Amino acid sequence: YFFVESIVELIRKRISCRNYGSKPVEEEKVKQLSDFLSTNTRGTFGNTLRFQLLDLTEMERKEMKTREPME
């Protein structure tokens, strides 16, 4: 296969958004999840993990997928 960009650059640009339903998540559950994610910051190979919980509208989700990645 021929890529215009390197595989590494494609991986860096990747954005993953999950949507599991239209029902809002309870504040207590958001806090529990946020606390858990903030204490688990190392991957299997020692790499730094970054998680962000976002509450986006449908339009914001679509816009996010078209943005350039953060450096």
Brief sketch in words of this structure:
It contains three helices and no strands. By secondary structure, it is mostly helical.
Helix content: 40-55%
Shape: flat
Distance between the termini: 27 Å
Say how many strands there are: 0
Strand-residue proportion: under 5%
Look at the helices and sheets and give the structural class: mainly alpha
Order of helices and strands: HHH
Please give the radius of gyration in angstroms: 15 Å
| Major sheet details | none
Poorly predicted ranges: none
Query: What's the helix count?
Result: 3
Rounded average pLDDT = 79
Layout of helices and strands, plus pairs?
Blueprint: H1 7-13, H2 27-39, H3 58-66
3D architecture notes:
Helices cover 41% and strands 0% of the residues. The model has no long low-confidence stretch (mean pLDDT 79). With 71 residues, the chain is mostly helical.
Descriptive keywords:
about 70 residues; mainly alpha; 3 helices; about 40% helix; flat
